[in-house]
């Protein structure tokens, strides 16, 4: 059966789908610690974690304190569990491989902030990602803001 619309779709055993998510992860307290070498390790780990779930990495980019993904996701994927698995495993690997580099940023064994942004890639303007990153700036007292659930419209 050929899909009758001009929309790129994927197929598994039970579904024809086109599901994309933007995901943004930020470092703890937005510490500017993401070097090109750390990003390369994060990218390799993303391929290891997402691959078995048939999640495609359409785009992956970074700033000095965040990583942005555009992922193609099958309908069977529990994306929150997979993202948390990625955060845990990549944090362990980065802290192990770059312990000396990260020591000046983190006294505790942390890397990622607890929160993250996930939005469907439908008609999401880039301003939404920019807003989220702006909300993750550390406060004067050292606490990150934007971790509380809020509804923005």
Structural features, described:
With 153 residues, the protein is α+β, with helices and mostly antiparallel strands. It has one domain (14-134): 2-Layer Sandwich (Alpha-Beta Plaits), CATH 3.30.70.1290. The chain has helices at residues 36-50, 79-97, 99-103, 126-135; strands spanning 10-11, 16-17, 20-27, 56-62, 66-72, 112-120. The strands form 2 sheets. A 4-stranded antiparallel sheet has the order 4-5-3-6, with helices on both faces. A hairpin with a 4-residue loop joins strand 1 and strand 2 (16-17). Helix 1 packs antiparallel against helix 2 (79-97). The chain is globular.
Please write out the topology.
Blueprint: E1 10-11, E2 16-17, E3 20-27, H1 36-50, E4 56-62, E5 66-72, H2 79-97, H3 99-103, E6 112-120, H4 126-135
